Structure formats: C-alpha cells, structure tokens
Amino acid sequence: MHNADKNRLNDEKKYVVIVDRLQKRGVTQLDIAEITLGLQTKYLPFLSIDVCLDHVKRVLMKREVQNAILTGLELDILAEQGKLSEPLSTIILSDYGLYGIDEILALSIVNVYGSIGSTNFGFVDKTKPGIIGRLDDKTDGKKTCNTFLDDIVGAIAAAAASSIAHKYADVDSKPETF
Ligand code: MG
After folding, report:
1. Cis peptide upstream of residue 129 (ω within 30 degrees of 0)
2. Does the predicted model carry a pTM greater than 0.70?
3. Of 49, 69, 85, 174, which is most buried by a Cβ count within 10 Å?
4. Structural domains for the chain
C-alpha cells in the first residue's frame, strides 16, 4: 500500500484529477515547487527542489485542499465560458480588487498549516513570484480567467513552505543537504 493511502485526510484519486486540471490551466507542480523553494531557501539554504516538490504533492493530496482547488478552478472556467450570471460574471472576469473571495478560498488551503501558512501566503500575494506573476498578467490579450487560480497557486506554494518549516522546526543541526 502506498504510504499516502494510510492517511485518511488524503485522496489519491482526486490528486491525479487535480494535477491534470492545474496542468490544463498552465500550472505544473514544478512551477509551484519553485515558489516554495524561494520562500524557504533563506531559512534552509540547502533545501532542494525535490523536497519542495514532495511537499507540494503532500499538500495536493489533502482532501480539503483539493475541494478548494476544484471549486476555484471551476469558477474561473465557468466565468471564461460566460456561464455565470451578473453581477458575479463581471466581478470574476475583471478580477475586481474588492471581491476578495478568491483570497478567502485560498486561505482555506493555508489554514491547514497554521499561522506560518498565512504569513507565507500574504508574502506571495504581494510579491507574485514566478508563475503567479505570469497568471496575474492581464496584458497577454488572452481571454483566460485566472482570478481564483493565482491565489490557489500562491496558497499551495505557501502551504508547502509551511509544511517544510514545520518538518524541520525541531532539527537543531540541519543536514547539509536533504
Ligand atoms: Mg485572484
């Protein structure tokens, strides 16, 4: 039995669906892991991208994280397809700054990891590193709606960074590589 199956909070079948759906929206696990590495490397200078990828996967396995991702992506896609009614349609398509529900939904991802999760999320929300900046870029002329996706990606990266921080919090002498 795969190790992850033993955790009742995990859902391996939905994990496959989630990874596929994120990829179709232009986001890979590696894109997210790179943001995680950027967040943690100042505390853990020898942290590798593989460890970050592993923690991104752990986050994506969690059922409550998956539920938030499925909901947010669906709203972006329905908005794009013109299937939402007004006034919500315009609010989501224009990524209206005072809407705020995209951030609230994303917070449900980081809340699993306590206050470090929220701090990391706030940081990526402000700095928009890597793929988040590209998703947030509205100058590409495409009709893609990433109102929920950019926050979701930031939250997954922040959650993975927090998961790493918690894991190595008790290590007095950190290994040189891990
Ligand atoms: Mg947003």
Report:
1. no
2. yes
3. 69
4. 3-167 (1.10.3760.10)
Report the interhelical angle of 63-80 vs 49-61 (nearest 10°).
80
Q: What is the pLDDT of residues 112-138, one digit of tens each?
A: 888 888 899 999 999 999 999 988 776
106 C-alpha to ligand 1 centroid (Å): 9
DSSP bridge partners of 10: 62
Long-range contacts of 35-38 (CB under 8 A, 24+ apart): 35/124, 35/129, 35/130, 35/131, 35/132, 35/153, 35/154, 35/157, 36/157, 36/158, 36/160, 36/161, 36/164, 38/129, 38/130
Report in angstroms the alpha-carbon separations of 120 from 11, 15, 161: 25, 23, 8
pLDDT, tens digit (0-9, with 9 covering 90-100), for 32-87 = 999 999 999 999 999 999 999 999 999 999 999 999 999 999 999 999 999 999 99
Banded model confidence at residue 171, pLDDT cuts 50, 70, 90: low
In the three-class reduction of DSSP (H, G, I as helix; E, B as strand; rest coil), residue 10 is classed as strand
CA of 148 to the centre of ligand 1 (A): 5
